[in-house]
Specification:
Elements (H helix, E strand, L loop, with lengths): L15 E6 L7 H9 L4 E5 L12 E6 L2 H11 L3 E2 L2 E2 L1 E4 L10 E2 L8 H4 L11 E2 L8
Antiparallel strand pairs: 1-3, 1-6, 2-3, 4-5, 7-8
Length: 136
């Protein structure tokens, strides 16, 4: 639920979104708003809920109008205890600037020539997805 109620999503163009991880399941947008407002103009606070149970999913999104204010919030709040939990705050990755989803096996540090199978049977295709924060 958004801190600003059910009036619909706020205008989020040209805003900077932070992903807040490891929040307590009882922490609400109303609890997070004053904490993050200390560091700049907060456009919205959104805490996703489980569709079946309505319970918090343990993370939130906070949107700032200006990048420097968002960075200040990251610097001051990342690693801080909130409701008995050590929260992690980082820029959210979403939309056109998100890392692309890659298909196939991903092996770091292995050259392409070493990655090839000698077998002619088709290799299974796996989809590895990095956390991409989607807001609405």
């Amino acid at each position: 639920m958004s801190h600003f109620g059910r009036s619909g999503p706020p205008d989020i163009r040209d805003t900077f979104s932070l992903l807040v991880l490891n929040i307590s399941f009882r922490t609400t947008a109303d609890d997070l708003f004053p904490l993050f407002e200390r560091y700049g103009k907060v456009v919205d606070v959104f805490t996703p809920r489980d569709r079946r149970t309505g319970d918090s999913r343990g993370f939130a999104f906070v949107r700032y109008k200006y990048a420097d204010e968002a960075q200040k919030a990251i610097d001051r709040l990342d690693g801080r205890d909130v409701d008995g939990r050590n929260i992690m705050v980082q820029f959210a990755k979403y939309g056109p600037n998100a890392e692309p989803i890659r298909k196939g096996r991903v092996k770091e540090g292995v050259e392409k020539s070493q990655d090839r199978s000698r077998s002619r049977s088709p290799r299974p295709s796996y989809l590895f997805v990095r956390w991409v924060a989607v807001y609405w």
